[in-house]
């Protein structure tokens, strides 16, 4: 019996590895090609705009990301885990939740623009923030279709949407910047390209209809509660990734924030794109293991999928980031201009690059916990790390930007591997032990029943 289980586990694991590698290829290549176009756009922006303009853009995009993050998977996290009939029956409720969340996000960001403008004494950011907020109102048109593609593991379509959205953003931004539109050259394209994302996800992708009318959809409160926990977990990750912008702008001002924003995006732009694609593919990949009928096989396969995926992303990320770090003193002034070197961006750039070496570990841990329905634990971990990061930035900001970047590197090097070790020792191993005990208990009851019947 154990030999059959092992062979079945090995077969499903090999098939899953192949699917995940293809998914990561499509998403990762889309991100990289899109980032190449964005790189060309950023070269133009770096030579045209001042650090102050980059600081204004950093404030707007950070607020957008923090508000948008809880809405992205507020329904898709539930829909991906459902069977076909449950999915079809739950789509109307999911659509209502999507619209409610998007309208709330639009109102929140629009209102937030006024106190931010007052604090930074810069009313220029009000109108661009409100325009950026309108993109929330477009998202529900494609959110259900995107969830269907993710659930079906159509990562080629998901990757295509990311690619053309990023390419459109880069081309429009460069064009508008050369036309002299100022800050609008960065904000306006980000709203327009949402239409590209919607069109690709909706193309030849009708929403399924239920054939079994006896199956009821997941109630709105239950779906909203689960989606809220996932959204809060994602928000904690996003806050962890963006808290530096908020604190640097608060402690060191818009010019320092502009330098940091430039260094962060040029150093981690491509690698974070790969990591984001990895997280998107990994969640669907891990959920696939849990659909197995036999728990012990599902548990073993889940562990194998997690370990394989983590090794794969590190094999990709480490060489890219190492090469980028080594070549940065050469290509940074050559491509972006010497003014950024004079402003002190190079050491910040290098330190942030190095922090990218361990960021995939944190992403993998978060997606694993969510797939195991441990969103509360994931939220706790991320909030704790965010608090440590905020304290580190607040303390290091007393010595300038380089000290802040060094503090960010150190805290990532310590916490991300520690979280991964904890997951391996106390989550995966514990689940495997519990599953084996369940299997033994089930076998024992089965043998007793057979003996009794005999």
TrEMBL record:
Membrane topology: Multi-pass membrane protein
Cellular compartment(s): Cell membrane
Pfam families registered for this protein in UniProt: Polysacc_synt_3
InterPro entries from the UniProt entry: Poly_Biosynth_Transport
Key word Cell membrane present: yes
Domain of life: Bacteria
Keyword line: Cell membrane, Membrane, Transmembrane, Transmembrane helix
Primary localization class, coarse: membrane
GO cellular component term of the entry, any: plasma membrane
Transmembrane segments: 97-118, 124-150, 171-200, 220-238, 245-264, 270-289, 310-334, 340-358, 379-395, 401-423
Family that this chain belongs to: Belongs to the polysaccharide synthase family.
PANTHER family: LIPOPOLYSACCHARIDE BIOSYNTHESIS PROTEIN WZXC (PTHR30250:SF10), PST FAMILY PREDICTED COLANIC ACID TRANSPORTER (PTHR30250)
Protein name as annotated: Polysaccharide biosynthesis protein
